[in-house]
Amino acid sequence: xxxxxxxxxxxxxxxxxxxxxxxxxxxxxxxxxxxxxxxxxxxxxxxxxxxxxxxxxxxxxxxxxxxxxxxxxxxxxxxxxxxxxxxxxxxxxxxxxxxxxxxxxxxxxxxxxxxxxxxxxxxxxxxxxxxxxxxxxxxxxxxxxxxxxxxxxxxxxxxxxxxxxxxxxxxxxxxxxxxxxxxxxxxxxxx
Length: 191
Prior knowledge:
This protein is mainly α. Helix content is 76%, strand content 0%. The chain contains 9 helices and no strands.
């Protein structure tokens, strides 16, 4: 559990710099340069992510169960997850989805985290998914007082929504049918 906690602290702290102190972040970018800042940021985020993945995997080997969700919640969670991949694609494919949600990646993160909290009931799940949910809510609130930096991506187009939905639903189907079991070790349906 220590590795999971350390990874969450590192990963979420790096992603919270603008939430906590955007002026410091901007000063550091000016001092170090954009690429050096992005390199340090990416390296720390990667270290955090590796620790999260390893720590979560280890915690799942000896789970501490808080609650056992009924099967119906797994189905609700699967339904909540349907828009997650389209929203992630929409963050980089500007169109009506991005305009309507304003921050599709944060909406996707909140849905992903909430759905997993409904379907899983261990301490590790609460730490991982609860941590991401709290972070996404805090980031969304902080964006009301700061200007979001532009995301790289395709130029705005009416076709971007269609592309985001088709790619997202295709990836969702692949996760439901096979990838979640292969990558995470847990089937989405029937597990």
